[in-house]
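RETRY 2/3 - previous attempt timed out on the joint model. Re-submitting the same 430-residue input unchanged.
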Amino acid sequence: MSCVIVVGSQWGDEGKGKVVDLLTQQADVVVRFQGGNNAGHTLVVNGNQFILHLIPSGILHPGKRCLIGNGVVVDLEVLHKEVIGLRERGLTLGPENLAISGKAHLILPYHKHLDAVRESAKGSGSIGTTGRGIGPCYEDKVARVGIRVSDILDEQVFSDKVRENLKEKNFLFEHYLKVATLDPQEICKSFLPLADFIRPYVADVSLLIDEAIKNKKRILFEGAQGTHLDIDHGTYPYVTSSNPVAGSACAGAGLGPNKIKAVVGIVKAYTTRVGGGPFPTELSDETGLFLREKGGEYGATTGRPRRCGWLDAVVLRDSARLNGLSHLAITKLDVLSGIKTLRICTAYSYEGQTLQTLPASLKAVEGCRPIYEDLPGWSQDLKGIRKRQDLPLEARNYLKRMEELMQVPIGIISLGPDREETITENNPFN
Ligand code: IMP
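RETRY 2/3 succeeded.
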């Protein structure tokens, strides 16, 4: 039994794509279990860049099976474009290497419309969503009016549901939000032709995973976003609408927790966040700009500049606990070269108290001030280094301090975007 979950430990964009891509080389099956095309992985393979939003990056490897679980919300137009785009670049995509759960919910134009209109109505208090309709789609799922992949395979069922849903949505658009309404016939006209495209890929993902486990295959569960964007455990309401924590892999793909062997937490060597919400270690000075420019901290999905700051061990300790992390994968350590003194936030100060964990109340999180520990930085370029002991002493100390603060051992250290720029010390599949 070899099921490994990979999750982001901060606010997303930790560089999961590269680590997932590396682990995929050893996996037989790669599974997405939550989120939708709000995620975006940029991958460089043999000098070619690929940006994927929905399909697991395992698709770039021949012979791997990629699964989209029931917990994912799917924009069929985006999936269709992604499939066509990959085919045009010479990749083979068929039911033998891509399957999607019939229970996954569909993102429809009214979800995107609602996302956009609500965000602009909130003005400066906006969440800064990716505008992909993710939140409204999950809302409909929980309200039990969602439309699932299996529904679009039946024209009548799909049309009836769209018509029914639009009654309420259009009332909201017209009378409360005072924006244009949507036409159910237009939606059916543009979406129903996609039924034929998706039909061959629809499968029982839970069954496929069960079969793979029985056949002793290695399965990688690819989390999207990050732990502190989790709808339950994140900095609510500045969060996404799904559960990026590791526990959600079981519900979002359809397997039991006793099947999980390891949980890898991806940790960027500093912290970033896109969109609104509290960020105690945010840097709005030259160091913040240095991290953004050197780290290429611009969103793969929206192109937005990311907010940057020091490493936050409070955030990371919470992640270790919430996910049950067994391994850490550190990314972008190379970006820190050239910073004279590095700071790690080890606790927060809040109203005269020292806090070791993020409080539940947003007001309290916003009032938290980081307590820093300073560590000497290093100036050497880390390019070409392939062993931890060859790293500068200061870089080794920084990594050691991370392990101490999180109480989780490091398994992988990434020193650049290419597959080769990696130190692997402890393979989670072994
Ligand atoms: P939504 O997921 O589009 O609803 O956006 C909710 C919040 O999650 C916003 O702050 C987004 O910027 C953030 N978010 C969503 N997906 C990602 C991601 O893949 N990386 C980083 N932040 C994300």
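The longest helix spans residues 155-176. Closing ticket.
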